[in-house]
Amino acid sequence: MGSRNKNAEDFFANMPNPDAIFQSWWPFIIAGTVGTIYGVRQWVRGPKCIGGSRMKGKTIIVTGANGGIGKEIALQLAHRGGKVIMACRDAVEGKKAADFVRKETENMDVYFMKLDLNSFKSIREFVEKFKKKESNLHLLINNAGVMMCPQEKTEDGFDVQFQTNYLGPFLLTELLLDILKASAPSRIINTTASAHNLGDISFDDINLEKKEYSLGDVYAQSKLAVVLHTFQLAERLKDTKVTCNVVNPGICNTDIYRYLPLKSKKFIRVSFAPFMWFLMKYPEDGAQISIYLSTADELAETSGKHFKDAKEQPLSGKCSDKLLQEQLYRASLKWIEQSKESQIENTKADDVDNSHSKKSQTKSKTDSSMERVQL
């Protein structure tokens, strides 16, 4: 009995100190934690586009290219040798971004051109100037967008979110179709977001003014419209060697969230900074899907598809409703035409008012105003 007790005492006496065992595991715990964080972070960032064709000899338009994803798209396509037109609303930031891309890539074929998607007049002027300067267009990337900005109407009478995200790019694309077809094979890439799943098209109340206004509803509507237009346009462009696809870059840490408390409130921004870093992509990550669709040889004939994280993700429901797609196309043409007619009427009314004091100048003012509207 004494011998057994002695053996038991020796056994427990020779056991390692539990604290020492725990301390020895710390390197493994730390390594495992860091590895897990790194792995999840890389998964969030998504795949990189490392292949694809060079873009030498290709003329490219990227909207909203003064910052965020658009700037990264322009940078990477310029690295591949493309002639890149950075179409931006802010002239100062746009020129600065173009200078940066030229310096980083040593590609001198990078240019800024002013484009304000909140103005149909600006869009028409942009297209006219572009066609005078360029004889080809091989790639149009409609990247520009806004999210949850304060309720406001554009000079054309539409909600800022709806026109910036959808109706402006719609007009831009339609006006550039002739040069895209003439330059074929060419590609059109539109940009949507997961919010399109929550959207509905209110044809009789496109600015959502007849019910309680919701920034989120307007945003979702605009992103659904982008998808519908993409699929309808792809159908129209069959047999033209012009493809049209839509991408979802995912949740990226860019200025598109500048109107949300997450970005606009300093305390919240600082408090959530670690979570934003962990759960959101960098702009360069969000650009990868557009780079892939721009350069992948295997997608040369792919059209009317939705892509996210470097792979096709089919959409169903209202997105694939061909009647809804066609209805939106017809309505969009009507909205733009009505806006144009309204501006012409306003111009005429202004000229009539001015004629009381300046009759001799009425004709010249009317002519110049009409010319601007018809651009």
What is the string of helix and strand elements? HHEHEHEHEHEHEHHHHEEHH
The shape is globular
Helix coverage percent: 40-55%
The CATH topology of the largest domain comes to Rossmann fold
The share of residues in extended strands comes to: 5-15%
Task: State the CATH class of the largest domain.
Answer: Alpha Beta
Query: Roughly how many Å apart are the termini?
Result: 107 Å
Q: What number of structural domains do the residues give?
A: 2
Query: Largest beta sheet, briefly?
Result: 8 strands, mixed
Q: What's the β-strand tally?
A: 8
What's the arrangement of secondary structure elements?
Elements lengths: L1 H12 L4 H28 L13 E5 L4 H12 L3 E6 L2 H15 L4 E5 L5 H14 L5 E4 L17 H23 L3 E6 L23 H22 L5 E6 L13 H4 L1 H6 L1 H7 L3 H13 L10 E3 L2 E2 L9 H34 L6 H12 L2
Parallel strand pairs: 1-2, 1-4, 2-3, 4-5, 5-6, 6-7
Antiparallel strand pairs: 7-8
Helix pairs in contact: 3-4, 3-11, 5-6, 6-7, 7-12, 12-13
Molecular structure report:
GO terms for molecular function: oxidoreductase activity. Residues 341-375 are annotated as: Disordered. This is Retinol dehydrogenase 13. It comes from Biomphalaria pfeifferi. With 375 residues, this protein is of the alpha/beta class. It folds into 2 domains: 59-320, NAD(P)-binding Rossmann-like Domain (Rossmann fold, 3-Layer(aba) Sandwich), CATH 3.40.50; 330-373. Helix content is 54%, strand content 10%. The chain contains 13 helices and 8 strands. It has helices at 2-13, 18-45, 68-79, 91-105, 120-133, 160-182, 215-236, 261-264, 266-271, 273-279, 283-295, 322-355, 362-373, and strands at 59-63, 83-88, 110-114, 139-142, 186-191, 242-247, 306-308, 311-312. An 8-stranded mixed beta sheet has the order 3-2-1-4-5-6-7-8, sandwiched between helices. The protein is globular. The chain starts with a helix and ends with a helix.
